[in-house]
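Researcher: Let's do a round of design. I'm pasting the structure tokens now; please hold your answer until I've finished.
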């Protein structure tokens, strides 16, 4: 059994490594004056084998010619073919080593390490996981919400509806937190799972914590990252940009580096991750049909306000509640730079921005209004700004939200998990009913998938001035870059920590 596994493991490790080694940061050309119209189609029509009707995407035949890459598509087709011809999975393998450092060392080989550093263990995982700290620091911060009586919760009970692979626990989980006023922190005191209700110091408290972390990690990767950032928000923005904003439009130039290649990239990575035998089905607990239902149902729950940290935190009732919110503060500082850029840049081109020499009010720009119409039609629950209520302030906040979605959210919920998701002794990727750790193939695939999320991609801190329409636009883009460098410098004055999201870690888009 172990000899075939040796070859299988190294074959797929080499594929992961070569993808990492060959990936070069995207070169972003000027946008074409006009693109062919993209008709959004159900995912089930775009990709045969994915029975999901409510998610709208650009079909493979409609990928814009300036994005289309025959070579990249061929590589992904080969990868999907290999899922059945020589799968990365092998039934009956033993579990990973109980020593997490040894388990990681065996899966994250010398070859991987030639391209990327191994993960760092966050402070919260050094001992029994500190859920109260994870609720306010790091990638799961967005799950915390007030639930009455001065208590707070992670409410992932909805995940219990979706079918999991045989032998695994279902992920419907709720964690209750109370405020510790002396520490200005939170403490988890109750966890509800399929095991029942577990209280602090109960015999199954540690297992309940693992189930909570398994649930929040799976939801982050599948729902918040891929479904909401890529398919819902990023997908709608990519199509609406192509369809309604000409290449010479100032808002097209502002968002172009964040949207170029969206259609080509979405087609490839959706196949590689969501088709039967793909990363999602083989790594996370959900069966293929459970995963499809999860995507279908949670797509409809996307809200653009998730991409506005202050508004989102206020709606969750977590501000000014007697505990510190370090990641929230971090995210608001990043959003503030983007919001300032959106306002400063847009003011150049519209008279209702007041200070600039803009030519017209935003509501008088027919192309911009058509873009809003399309965004509202394509985005689940709309984008809150319509041609009926648009103002300069609302427009620029929306622009900042899209920048934040493409850069901050995508990093926070994707590559940033590198330091969290591989420590499965604290945060299992699957929880087996028999209590066994993940088998070798599942862990190896988790490592390789996270590795490939961290390929070298075009950074946000970059001079995009060549995309500007004019000197004023160029100066605004240069100012944005300087503001990001300034925020980075101010964060560098404090000690580094795994939970902090730095401007220099941000990539310009969701596309590789
Ligand atoms: Fe991504």
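Researcher: That's everything. Go ahead.
Model: Designed sequence:
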């Amino acid at each position: 059994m172990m000899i075939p596994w040796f070859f299988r493991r190294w074959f797929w490790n080499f594929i992961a490594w070569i993808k990492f080694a060959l990936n070069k940061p995207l070169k972003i050309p000027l946008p074409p004056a006009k693109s062919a119209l993209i008709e959004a189609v159900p995912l089930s029509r775009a990709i045969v084998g994915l029975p999901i009707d409510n998610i709208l995407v650009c079909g493979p035949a409609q990928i814009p010619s300036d994005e289309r890459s025959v070579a990249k598509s061929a590589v992904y087709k080969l990868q999907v073919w290999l899922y059945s011809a020589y799968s990365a999975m092998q039934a009956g393998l033993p579990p990973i080593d109980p020593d997490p450092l040894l388990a990681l060392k065996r899966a994250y080989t010398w070859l991987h390490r030639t391209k990327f550093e191994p993960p760092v263990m966050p402070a919260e995982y050094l001992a029994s996981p500190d859920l109260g700290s994870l609720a306010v620091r790091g990638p799961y911060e967005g799950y915390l919400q007030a639930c009455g009586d001065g208590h707070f919760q992670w409410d992932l009970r909805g995940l219990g509806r979706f079918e999991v692979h045989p032998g695994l626990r279902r992920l419907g989980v709720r964690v209750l937190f109370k405020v510790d006023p002396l520490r200005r922190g939170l403490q988890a005191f109750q966890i509800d799972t399929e095991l029942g209700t577990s209280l602090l110091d109960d015999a199954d408290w540690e297992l309940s914590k693992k189930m909570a972390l398994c649930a929040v990690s799976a939801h982050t990767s599948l729902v918040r990252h891929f479904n909401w950032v890529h398919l819902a928000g990023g997908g709608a923005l990519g199509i609406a940009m192509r369809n309604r904003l000409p290449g010479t439009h100032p808002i097209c130039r502002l968002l172009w580096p964040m949207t170029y290649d969206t259609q080509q990239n979405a087609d490839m990575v959706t196949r590689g991750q969501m088709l039967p035998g793909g990363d999602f089905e083989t790594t996370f607990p959900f069966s293929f049909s459970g995963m499809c239902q999860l995507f279908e149902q949670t797509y409809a729950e996307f809200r653009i306000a998730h991409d506005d940290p202050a508004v989102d935190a206020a709606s969750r009732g977590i501000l000014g509640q007697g505990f510190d919110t370090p990641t929230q503060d971090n995210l608001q500082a990043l959003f503030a730079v983007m919001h300032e850029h959106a306002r400063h840049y847009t003011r150049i081109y519209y008279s209702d921005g007041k200070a600039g020499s803009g030519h017209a009010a935003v509501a008088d720009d027919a192309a911009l209004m058509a873009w809003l119409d399309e965004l509202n039609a394509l985005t689940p629950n709309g984008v809150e700004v319509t041609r009926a209520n648009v103002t300069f302030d609302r427009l620029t906040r929306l622009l900042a939200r899209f920048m934040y979605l493409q850069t901050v959210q995508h990093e926070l919920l994707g590559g940033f998990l590198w330091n969290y998701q591989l420590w499965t002794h604290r945060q299992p990727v699957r929880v087996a009913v028999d209590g066994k750790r993940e088998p070798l193939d599942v862990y190896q695939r988790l490592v390789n998938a996270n590795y490939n999320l961290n390929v070298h991609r075009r950074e946000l801190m970059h001079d995009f001035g060549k995309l500007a329409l004019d000197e004023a636009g160029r100066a605004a883009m240069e100012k944005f870059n300087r503001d990001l460098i300034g925020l980075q410098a101010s964060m560098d004055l404090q000690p580094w920590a795994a939970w902090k999201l730095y401007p220099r870690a941000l990539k310009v888009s969701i596309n590789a």
